[in-house]
Structure formats: C-alpha cells, structure tokens
Amino acid sequence: xxxxxxxxxxxxxxxxxxxxxxxxxxxxxxxxxxxxxxxxxxxxxxxxxxxxxxxxxxxxxxxxxxxxxxxxxxxxxxxxxxxxxxxxxxxxxxxxxxxxxxxxxxxxxxxxxxxxxxxxxxxxxxxxxxxxxxxxxxxxxxxxxxxxxxxxxxxxxxxxxxxxxxxxxxxxxxxxxxxxxxxxxxxxxxxxx
Length: 193
Prior knowledge:
The protein is an alpha/beta fold. The chain is about 45% helix and about 15% strand.
C-alpha cells in the first residue's frame, strides 16, 4: 500500500491537513494518508529518527511539518534533515511553518472569515503585516487578537483549512508545503487534480 505519511508537531497540523488533502489529492488516488502526531516540537525532534527507522512500508513517503517559532529556520530544517538522513530516509521532505502554522491563515483572511464566520476580516488582508504573514513574530497571538479569541488551534484549523486558497497562498512556507504534498504524492503515482 502506498502511503503519504506526515510527521506533525501538534494536533492542529493534523486538523489543517485533514481539511486540505481532499482538495490536493483526488478521491481515487492510490495513496493513503497517515498522520503521526507528536506532543510538541521537542517530542518530534526526539522521536523522529526512531519512528522513521521503524517504519516498515517500503511504499511510504514522508513529510515532516514543524513550526519555526523563534528558532533559526535554516538550523531547524538542517537538524531535521540530518535526523532523516541518519534514519536512512533521505527522501523525507521537511517543511517549516515560518514562525507558526497560523501564518498560513493570516495570509488568507478570507478563509479565516469563512471558517470562523467573522465578517469583515478579508478587508484587512491588504494591511502590510498580512501581505507577508511569514514575517510576523507571533502569528497565533495575532490571530487570537484579530478574531477576538474565537480562534482556537485545533477547532480553528479544522474550520479554516477547507477555505484556504491553494492557488495563491501569501505565506511562502504554506506554498512550499502545498508543493511538497503535490510532488510527494506524484512520486507515489497519484494523478493530481
């Protein structure tokens, strides 16, 4: 069985991907998606190598998704890639959400407006800070403030994901994630829409 396996820092990433994958992969794709969710970035960093080594399906391909937070993005990615190499899985794709997953949402306030049913958010998209959401220092706090605390990580991700614009994402790190999913699924033989 061909599998696209995601190693995720937290449950909100699974909620995001659960809403995105039906739009990225056709229903009849010969690929199963699987999520391995860790209890934060330290847990992911500590267990990733062992989980990759222990994964027995030779027809599996892997994507690791982790928040940058306040760390140096390039150092975080290099460390994760090194773990994948050490595990004997050099084909594993590592993607870093610049600062946090919430930067994906701040780059598409129309999706936030639709998902959380808050009128008027999309009109704020042209403000400088939302044009390049990967530059925000604390996207989760910004999203909580912007939504008057209606955004909650898992439920918010679940509600917003189906509305995200996959054609013109403002978040560069979100665009890279979408491309990684597409190319990895194509390697597994999925005919993408």
